[in-house]
Amino acid sequence: MVQADSVPSAALLNRYGSSCPRYTSYPTADRFGALGGAEPWAALKDIRALSLYVHIPFCRSLCYFCACNKVVTQQYGLASSYLEQLLAEARSYRDRVADVPVVQLHLGGGTPTFLNDGDLHRLVEGLGETFNLGGEGREYGIEADPRTLELESLATLRELGFNRLSLGIQDFDLTVQRAINRICTAEQVRELTDEARRQGFESISYDLIYGLPHQNLDTLRGTIDQVMELAPDRIALYHYAHLPERFKAQRLIDTDAVPGAAEKVEMQLAAVQALEEAGYDYLGMDHFARRDDSMARAARDGELQRNFQGYTLMPADALVGLGASAISYSADGYWQNHHRLKDYNAAIAERRSAVFRGWQLSADDRLRQYVIMELMCRLSLDKSEVARRAGAAFDDYFAAERARLEPLKADGLIEEDADRLWITPLGRWFVRHVAAAFDAYLARRQETPRYSKVI
Questions:
Q1: Where along this sequence does the record place binding of [4Fe-4S] cluster (predicted)?
Q2: Which single residue of 28, 55, 148, 328 could bond 323 by disulfide (Cβ 3.0 to 4.6 Å)?
Q3: Domains of the chain, earliest start first
């Protein structure tokens, strides 16, 4: 449970509430550049299991808070033609990937359920022509907008093998919903949740956001109470990052209505406490799971992972991302597709690949990747294991980082002994800053950072 001594003071908020990467990868995607002759996808030939991510960028209406790569349209033909290009990209991996089971498939967006049932069949069946979708114990997840998802489509999704459903709720308060242009009732969500359970979905997740315009402690508590009545298996509680200078849609939000840092801390604290009291484990920065859920068990067993969708079980050696802006990962590095739909479509039509940037991992990158992911997922480091991987003593290899960690140690965010370094309950609020101490590229960055604020 949240203890009084684990709540950050105003001084700590001022000191550490600044912008910082979320570390869904290391190096972070903003570091990616031209690959030159590097081919990080070559490592796909030597894997045992694969994850697939498919980006469907289309939405029927604009949510003002959203910072995702999306195309708002009522023209369904755009999605149908995009699907042609996406499947062509999938076929380009036929000779690149070992014949291994796909243990995870995730459809994100945008709004993946923008696709009608026929095109959902077309997509999954098309992916099955290239990838081995028949693995045991597979996890197939899809993000859905409860305002537009038809109850009948849940049967189609189950038929196609989807067993995890994520519903984007954000907030149930009508004033907040109007301010972000996303009106959705609790009854809509209840009907979908009940039907998904009847259809046999193994896990249902809700996305919530705190720090939205006109949101306050009381309205958030009201939303949490309604969510608890619906009892989803997992909850993602994200911090709203108000960056109107970067995201045009956010300019439609009244900046004066966005809660301040102190209010956001109160909201997060209240939400964490309410969810823990209701039987959810707090897994990390923004994820919660019921204590009997597989993700909660993975966290307890030290098997939680992190990728571009946040915390995950990720039991695969590599991730192939398909679609506009999608990022792929192998043991050798990362590669990312064009963001803009026009550029993506043109690249696929011309050369069957939309890759335009990436990163080839060095030995130092792999070591720091391990360190940062251990901190983000397990909140601790085994110094002897880091030393084994580094081929040098922990304190010697990370001498510069030791200096950056001292202020965090003095502020009670981390503790250590001869064998281990760990993040304290207070430090969990600022885990991104602890991880950032080991980011070699952030340490020497000169330009103004473009990351979201921690609080």
A1: 59, 63, 66
A2: 55
A3: 1-30+362-445 (1.10.10.920), 32-320 (3.80.30.20)
